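Long-time lurker. I teach an intro course on protein structure, and each term I like to show students one example going from raw sequence to a predicted 3D structure in token notation. This year I'd like something fresh instead of my usual example. Would anyone be willing to generate the tokens for the chain below so I can use it in lecture? Attribution to the forum is fine with me.
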Amino acid sequence: SYLTLKQVKEITQLSTSTIYRLIARGKFPKPFKLAERTSRWVGSEIEEFINQKIEKEKGSYLLGTGGKFDH
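-- Reply from a regular --
Happy to contribute to a lecture. Here you go:
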């Protein structure tokens, strides 16, 4: 499925500026252009981003680093 920015924000609970900052750092999936003024994200890529964050958080707690969210 393809997601709008609004949907990505709802799913990830990240702000627009945080999403684009993470994209610039190569830490968040890039959207693709559907039309000149329309971008979408691939739902499975957003799902994978979330799953990676969950696994990183689990590992952080196991290692005793407190599980800080990296952004």
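Some talking points for your students: The radius of gyration is 13 Å. The helical segments are 5-12, 16-24, 43-63.
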